[in-house]
Amino acid sequence: MMVRTACILGLLLLGACAPTEPSGLDDVEAVVASTGLKGTTSTSEQLEASSSSMTSIPDAELVGPPAIPTLDLDVIVLDNPTSGGGSMQELAWGSVNDGVRYDVVMFDSLGDLYWSWSTVETSVFMGGVETTLENPPGPQILEGMTWFVLAFDESGGLVAQSEVRAIAP
User: Fold this and answer.
1) Of 7, 32, 43, 141, which sits with the fewest C-beta atoms within 10 Å of its C-beta?
2) Backbone phi, psi, residue 106, to 5°
3) Rounded to two decimals, what is the model's pTM?
């Protein structure tokens, strides 16, 4: 729990992703690595391993969403239902005043960082691209996952956050 909280605080306080480039996991990995709390397997390696098998973890092993601090900020409203949208669904949320960049953060069923994306839009497809493939490569929404969104202003200051919400295919 301490590792997840430290990583999330790094995202909240440092604004991990670049303002104009959808950087995926690279910037988040840098923040996680800077904490010195992450194991030796990189997020990219975890992603490759999980995308090759795409199995879900039994309900008995689910630990729930990570704990993130609730700050005195505007609230971002998440538009997606908690299930039924498919494994590659478009993640969408409402815009907020002064929000010019949105960071999407997805956790697996164990509460570990699974995927992240930075965008100037108020939606992104899981994995960063829209696909019509039946079983596409790359990150997919699996049972027991959670996600949240952070909004940043032009100077990179945090201006809003969403709740941490469960999501499933």
Assistant:
1) 43
2) -120, 135
3) 0.64
